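Check these lines:
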Amino acid sequence: VTSFGITNYNKSQERAYRKTAESQLGLIKKAQQLYHSRYEQYYPVTGTGDKDLSAINRDLHLYIQAGGFTYQCMNTNDNQTYDCRAVRTGNGYTITVTHDSEPTCTGSCP
């Protein structure tokens, strides 16, 4: 019985982590829209490389906490699209948001 309770608790906790990461990526998407309206391109600018959470927070003026995820944004298609991800290391899933999609989970999603 105890094992069953712990398993359910862990699954619930992981679902909460996922929802938090989806919410954080939603904030990144809104910040990307603002960035695009100001500069007519998405962040990060082509040629500057992929950006980690520290750079994302600094450059998009956010305060996102990692919470067990590794965040990354990359530019695709000459500044007209982007791909931002939250990877849950050790749990086998990734949540992705793009300029034309809401946060989507792939892999072993809880």
Remarks:
- The radius of gyration is 15 Å.
